[in-house]
Structure formats: structure tokens, C-alpha cells
């Protein structure tokens, strides 16, 4: 069996009596396009927070490319190639778009702790950041502060910052959240064009987006995996309809 | 080459960190004032030392986003370190300055190690606790510090054995100006370095900074220590040029005044201190002359006006009219 890009074994977390993860066994294969869905409060974002190290699990282990990262700090996990985006934009709002990405690349390249050289000397990093913005169609906005951009574009910057880390595993927490449904197409097309070797886990509410992007879907309900399979199987699954899709159809 | 939008944008971004012509203005003014106002040199020296102090506060508050009411802890540590050295037989000013700065850095590092784990209001209170604790310690240790009476008997030797601190304040003026210049160079270089940019990132969004793998706590501790060293140097300058250290050097009032001066000038702009300090000290001087009883009220009113009408201070106003 080859190593998964990301794997959790028996991952659990509870806040007192409230359990947000009950022994989740999960595999994200290399280069996967995998979606994690579930009704509100199913524990999707908690799962992301556990995997990225924002929360400490109560039990179970997390493996990145076979290596146990359960005890690593958040920043150390990023260095191992694990990046995420946020459901609600978490950007450096008063800094320009280019600098948002530059900060991530400088961190990845290990020069962000340099004290006495001006940041402008690291031209290769700035060029890389600009080229990344160009592939996402953000180059025209490079020098604008993030808070001057429309929300939909800010969602793309959110992805750009994560890509600046050159991740092996990318966790996208509701990438289309807050965008009018007519405009979510730009986010979808950006995600579709991302390098195929990045293993991607998409947490999403928008079913159109999930069915367009994902080749595997895991359904999470009350902190446990209900079912996992290809989109057609999930769409046809009676239990999923009951807890999730059925809920929407009503 | 520069005509294509890619290089144009990259050039424009990289250029932001270069030195600008306008940045020479404060130094030219300072040199000109030496000749123009020979009667005010002692006040000038005080202003330079205070600018260095407020600049140190801008590093932690404006760039690292650490709200502090305890910056006087480092100022006072520096002042007492330089003062006690000079009162006990070692009056060489430059080594005294370095020693004072190092002592303040040690206090900054050790206290930062503990208090920077918290944030927001809890952090604010703990910075206050550090300064208050040192204040009381200095008050109790009167055998060393002179306690409530202040430290007496400082004897500061001439700089390089050549330039004696004169009663007209000429040497003090130049000494404080040079040290301020060096301190500014450190701060200027720091805020425009990748380290400084990452601090600004952490101020804008700490959570995201963690998520891109930055050791945020460690970097905050580093800048807190550097800021403490600058504040300590400022304290040493005041001690050496006035040959006196009082308990007020550790007081809450000193920390608070630094914040007021910084806010008047403009926070997180590096030059807020250069505008806020002279404005505040000249206003203090004028108001107390015109209205000796209620002058603090006028100072307060000035503060209210700035906060209500000029968010971002004087520099913020300039930025608004520039566009």
C-alpha cells in the first residue's frame, strides 16, 4: 500500500460532552481531488483545525506522507507541505495583494526571519509571487491593498497565499463561501487549473462545486464518517440524502 | 523593460523599501537647529532622547501590534543602569550606554518570555505590572537607586575623553542626535526587512501568519527585546545628559506619554515619533506657560482633537491630503 498524502487514524476531539470528531479514519491520496461534505455542525472545520494543528486532538494520529505529525506545531506542519485556506477570509487586509503572497513565499523560503536586509532585495520571491497572481488572474490588482478588492477576488487571494507555500496537501475550507452563486465559477476554474500533483481536500457546502471538482467524496455527520465514495455513489446514497441532501430538498 | 506591467509592478513593490529623499529632512532640520537655536540645545537633546524612546514604542505597538503600557520599564532600566554605573566610579558614557541598552534588552527578553504568551487586555495589564514592579523595586532599593530622592552623584566623563558635557548642551545635543540616528537606522532597517514585514503580517492577521508557518511568538519576542534595547539607550541618554535619574523614569506617566506622543504623530509609520515628540514637548512647554494650573487639560484636549479628527495622527493627515 502506498503512503497517503494525508491520513488520520482514529482522530478524536471533544470539548467536554461535545464530540466534534469520533475516531475519524481518513485517507487523502496523492494528487487527490477529494471533497468533505456534511450538514452544519458536522465537524468539517474542526477536522481542518485538527489536521493543521490549530486544535490538539484528544486521541488518534495524523500522518503526512507517512510521517506522524500529530505532535508537530502548526508552523512545523506547514514546513512539511500542509497548507490551508480559511472559510472566512484571513488575509493581511491593509497590505497589497502582492505582499500577501510574498509573505507566504518568504516564509517557505526561510528568509522571513532576516533582520537587516531590505525585503525589496529578494526579487526572485517577488517575481514568483507576481507570476502566481498572474496565473490566478490577479496580476492587475497586485499593488492594491486587499481590502480594496471585491470579496470574490479576495477569495482568490486566499487561495494564492496558500499556493505561495508550494503545498503538497492543500485544504480548502469552503473556497466559494460568501461569493454570489453566479460568480463561484471563477473560483471553480481556478481550482480546476491548480497543479495536479497537489493533493486537495475541499470542504464545501456548494454541491455544484463539489460535484464538478471532486472525484471522491466523504460525508461527515456528527464527527463521524458516514460514507465515502465517488460522486455518483454519494448522490445516490439513501443515508446521505436523508441527513444531508434530503435536508436541502425539503 | 520597465514598460511591461510585470516588471513595472515588481519594481514599484521592491522600491518601497528603498530610502526616500524625504527621510533626510528630520536630520537636516536637526543639524540646522544646532546653529539656529543655540539657546535651546539642552531641550533639543531631551527631545532627541525622547524620540528614540517613542520610536521604540512604535516598533512594538505600530509594527508588532503589541499594546503596551510598560515601555517605561526599559527606559528606567537603561537610565538606572547608566546612572548607577556613573555614580559608582565608571563614568565612560559610550560603554555606559551599551551596558544600559543591554540591561534593558535582558529585562525585555525575560519579561517578554513570560508576558507575550498573552494578548489584548491581559497583555496590556502585564506590561503595566512589569513596569510597576520595577518602579517599586527601585523605590525599595534606595541604597542603590536613591529611592524617592533619585540617584545622586553621577559623574559622566567626556566622550572619547575629549568632549566634556558642557553647560550649553552642545555635546549633549550632538551625542543624543548621533545615538538617535543610529537607533533610527536599526529601526528603519528592521521594519523594511522580511522580518519586519512578517511582523506587520502578524499585526494584520495573526492566525494567518501561523497558517503560513511563521514562528509568530518568537519574532514578537525578538522585536520586543530590540525595542527594549532602544528604550534603554534612550533612558541612558537622559540619565547621562542630565546627571540625574528619578523614579519617574519608571512611571506609568512616562509610558502613557510615549503612547500619546506616538498617537499624535502617527502610529506604525516610523516617523510618528519625529513629529509627535517635538509637538507634544513644545505644546507642554507653551501650555504650562500660558495656563500653569490647567495646562494638562489643554494637552488632553489636543489629544481628543487628534483622535477624533486625525485618526493616524499628523502623518495620517498628510497621507490623506497627499492623495
Structure description:
The complex is a heterodimer of chains A (250) and B (323). Chain A is α/β, with parallel strands linked by helices and 250 residues long. Chain A has a domain at 6-91 and 165-249: 3-Layer(aba) Sandwich (Rossmann fold). Chain A is 35% helix and 24% strand. Chain A has 9 helices and 10 strands. In chain A, the strands form 2 sheets. In chain A, strands 6-7-8-3-9-10 form a 6-stranded mixed β-sheet, sandwiched between helices. In chain A, α6 links the parallel β7 (169-173) and β8 (199-203). The longest helix of chain A has 13 residues, at 97-109. The relative contact order of chain A is 0.18. With 323 residues, chain B is an all-alpha fold. Chain B has a single domain (22-322), classed as ABC transporter involved in vitamin B12 uptake, BtuC, CATH 1.10.3470. Chain B contains 15 helices and no strands. In chain B, α3 (41-63) crosses α12, α5 (93-115) packs antiparallel against α11 and α12 packs parallel to α15 (313-322). The two termini of chain B are 28 Å apart. The relative contact order of chain B is 0.17. The A-B interface holds A 52, 54, 74-79, 83-84, 86, 90-96, 98-99, 102-104, 106-108, 111-123, 126-127, 130, 134, 139-140, 142-143, 161, 164-165 and B 5-6, 9-10, 12-18, 189-190, 192-198, 200-201, 204-205, 207-215, 219, 222.
Amino acid at each position: 500500500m502506498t503512503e497517503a498524502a494525508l491520513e488520520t487514524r482514529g482522530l478524536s476531539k471533544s470539548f467536554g460532552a461535545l464530540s466534534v470528531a469520533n475516531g475519524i479514519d481518513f485517507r487523502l491520496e496523492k494528487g487527490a481531488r477529494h471533497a468533505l461534505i456534511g450538514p452544519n455542525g458536522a465537524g468539517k472545520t474542526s477536522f481542518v483545525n485538527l489536521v493543521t494543528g490549530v486544535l490538539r486532538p484528544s486521541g488518534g494520529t495524523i500522518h503526512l506522507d507517512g510521517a506522524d505529525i500529530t505532535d508537530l506545531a502548526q508552523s512545523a506542519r506547514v514546513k512539511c507541505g500542509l497548507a490551508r485556506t480559511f472559510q472566512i477570509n484571513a488575509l493581511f487586509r491593509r497590505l497589497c495583494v502582492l505582499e500577501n503572497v510574498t509573505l507566504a513565499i518568504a516564509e517557505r523560503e526561510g528568509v522571513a526571519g532576516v533582520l537587516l536586509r531590505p525585503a525589496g532585495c529578494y526579487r526572485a520571491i517577488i517575481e514568483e509571487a507576481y507570476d502566481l497572481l498572474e496565473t490566478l488572474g490577479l496580476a492587475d490588482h497586485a499593488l492594491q491593498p486587499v481590502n480594496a478588492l471585491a470579496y470574490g477576488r479576495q477569495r482568490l487571494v486566499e487561495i494564492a497565499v496558500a499556493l505561495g507555500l508550494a503545498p503538497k496537501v492543500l485544504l480548502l475550507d469552503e473556497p466559494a463561501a460568501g461569493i454570489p452563486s453566479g460568480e463561484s465559477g471563477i473560483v471553480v476554474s481556478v481550482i480546476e487549473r491548480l497543479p495536479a500533483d497537489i493533493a486537495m481536500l475541499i470542504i464545501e457546502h456548494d454541491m455544484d462545486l463539489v460535484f464538478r471538482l471532486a472525484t471522491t467524496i466523504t460525508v461527515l455527520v456528527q464527527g463521524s464518517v458516514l460514507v465515502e465514495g465517488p460522486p455518483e455513489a454519494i448522490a445516490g446514497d439513501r443515508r446521505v440524502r436523508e441527513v444531508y441532501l434530503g435536508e436541502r430538498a425539503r | 523593460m520597465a514598460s511591461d506591467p510585470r516588471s513595472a509592478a515588481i519594481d514599484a513593490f521592491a522600491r518601497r523599501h528603498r530610502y526616500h529623499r524625504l527621510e533626510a529632512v528630520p536630520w537636516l532640520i536637526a543639524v540646522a537647529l544646532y546653529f539656529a537655536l543655540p539657546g535651546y540645545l539642552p531641550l533639543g537633546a531631551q527631545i532627541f532622547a525622547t524620540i528614540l524612546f517613542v520610536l521604540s514604542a512604535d516598533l512594538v505597538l505600530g509594527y508588532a501590534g503589541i499594546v503596551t503600557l510598560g515601555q517605561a520599564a526599559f527606559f528606567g532600566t537603561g537610565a538606572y543602569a547608566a546612572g548607577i554605573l556613573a555614580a559608582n566610579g565608571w563614568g565612560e558614557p559610550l560603554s555606559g550606554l551599551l551596558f544600559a541598552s543591554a540591561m534593558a534588552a535582558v529585562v525585555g527578553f525575560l519579561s517578554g518570555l513570560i508576558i507575550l504568551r498573552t494578548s489584548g487586555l491581559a497583555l496590556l495589564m502585564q506590561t503595566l505590572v512589569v513596569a510597576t514592579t520595577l518602579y517599586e523595586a527601585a523605590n525599595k532599593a534606595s541604597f542603590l537607586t536613591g529611592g524617592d530622592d533619585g540617584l545622586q552623584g553621577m559623574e559622566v566623563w567626556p566622550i572619547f575623553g575629549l568632549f566634556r558635557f558642557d553647560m550649553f548642551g552642545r555635546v549633549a545635543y550632538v551625542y543624543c542626535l548621533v545615538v538617535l540616528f543610529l537607533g533610527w537606522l536599526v529601526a528603519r532597517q528592521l521594519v523594511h526587512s522580511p522580518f519586519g514585514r512578517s511582523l506587520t503580517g502578524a499585526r494584520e492577521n495573526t492566525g494567518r501568519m501561523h497558517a503560513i508557518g511563521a514562528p509568530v511568538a518568537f519574532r514578537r519576542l525578538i522585536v520586543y527585546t530590540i525595542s527594549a534595547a532602544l528604550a534603554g539607550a534612550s533612558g541612558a541618554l537622559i540619565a547621562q545628559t542630565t546627571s540625574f535619574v528619578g523614579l519617574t523614569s519608571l512611571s506609568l506617566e512616562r509610558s502613557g506619554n510615549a503612547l500619546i506622543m506616538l498617537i499624535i504623530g502617527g502610529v506604525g509609520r516610523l516617523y510618528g515619533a519625529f513629529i509627535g515628540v517635538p509637538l507634544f514637548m513644545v505644546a507642554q512647554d507653551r501650555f504650562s506657560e500660558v495656563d500653569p494650573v490647567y495646562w494638562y487639560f489643554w494637552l488632553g484636549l489636543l489629544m481628543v482633537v487628534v483622535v477624533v479628527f486625525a485618526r493616524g495622527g499628523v502623518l495620517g493627515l498628510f497621507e490623506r491630503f497627499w492623495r
